[in-house]
Amino acid sequence: MRNGINISSFKTLKMDATFKEEIPPNPRSKANIFEIITYRWILKFIKKALNKELDFNDLYNVLDGDSSELLGNKLQKFWDDELIYAKTNKRKPCLVKTLFKMFGSNFMFSSTYLTVFQIILSIGISTMVGLIVNHFETNTYFDQNPVGVYLAIGLVSLLLIRAIIYNIVSMSNAHLSMQMRVATCDLIYNKTLRLKINSLDPTTTGHIINLMSNDVNRFDVSLMYLPFLWIGPLETFVTIYFLWQEVGVSSVIGVMTLLIFIPLQIWLASITSNIRLKIAERTDKRVNLMNEIISGLQTIKMYTWEPFFDNLTKQLRRNEMTKIIEASYIKRILTSFFLFNTRIALFVNIFAYVLLGNYITASKVM
Q: Which residues form the ABC transmembrane type-1 domain (predicted)?
């Protein structure tokens, strides 16, 4: 049994052309918008998993639009067009442009959707919190004015709407990144089958395995954070406008404090990118060595070369882990910026506001 699925049942499956018809259709294809948002379409599968061990007959078929054949052929067509266009214009072909031609419209739609609601909800939630604090500054008791209850209900509603929207966009981007992984892996696999034996020297087996098992997973992280490249600046301008209405010129000082951290973050991100390239090179070397060891295992056993290859493998793994640890340290530093840079900017903003002779209140802080 593996991951809740009975592997032994795999032996009883009919591995022929009719097996695909025996797989139940995916209920996601016929689900309505409410079932998609609430994931009601998968509840039947979850209940079945709670009552018995799952086997392969219980798994649903993939959606028609997610099949590797369809996605791979479509990406191959775009890639062939890119090769022709690049050859005509005497430049290197770009896979990013090819992926954007194929998936760009869906990504831009979800990103625009996220951008609009991110700005509206962020400002709305901040404004609602400020109104609640301001309300309880002037109304000590609940019986004096029940408006605070309505404001609290509005705040909870906005938070609920934001959670639903984030979930929809996250699932949409995850689905899109999965399609990009499948299409890219299909493209790599078909290219590998067409390679000649002599041409495999610069492109090692370990490099191909690392591409299909590790590098393609970067699509998940990229699509998750890529929209915030333009959401951040837009939200900054909107925030400056509303802060100016509340605290005046001190808002600019607070925002400038926040912007000071951006060059440092860019510098650390560039270092992380260089380290990741080195990690990829060392991972390729290690995986390639492991493939060679497995291929020549009988020879290694016959000549008792196990200690040599054991030390060699450990050394390559240590070199790889050294760079992975360095990247992890820098990544943790970048993550820490999300925790303290906004707080420092808020402190500087309030401090400048007080130094300019203003009186600070709880509603101003919120």
A: 114-366
Q: SS3 for 5? A: strand
Q: Alpha helix (H) ranges present in 52-94?
A: 68-89
In angstroms, the CA 95 to CA 358 distance is 55
To the question of pTM greater than 0.85 for the whole model, the response is no
Q: What are phi and psi of 196, to 5 degrees?
A: -85, 165
Residues 6+ apart with CB under 8 A from 66: 178, 179, 182
SS3 232: helix
Our CA dihedral for 166, 345, 328, 275, rounded to 10 degrees, sits at 100
Q: Domain coordinates of the chain in residue numbers?
A: 15-61, 66-245, 248-365
Q: CB count, 10 Å around CB of 75?
A: 24
In three-state secondary structure terms, 2 is strand
**Chain segment 90-148, per-residue pLDDT in tens:** 888 888 889 999 998 889 998 898 899 888 888 888 888 888 887 777 766 655 567 77
